[in-house]
Amino acid sequence: MTEILESAIRKRYAYPRYAFAFDVPAVAGSSTSRSADAVAVGLTWETGHVVTGLEFRFCCKELEDALRDTAEAVNQYCDYCNFVVPEPVVQETELPDGWGFMSVVWKSGMRLVRQAPELLRLPWPREFVAVFAKAACRP
Question: Sign of dihedral through CA atoms 114, 115, 120, 122?
Answer without folding.
Answer: positive
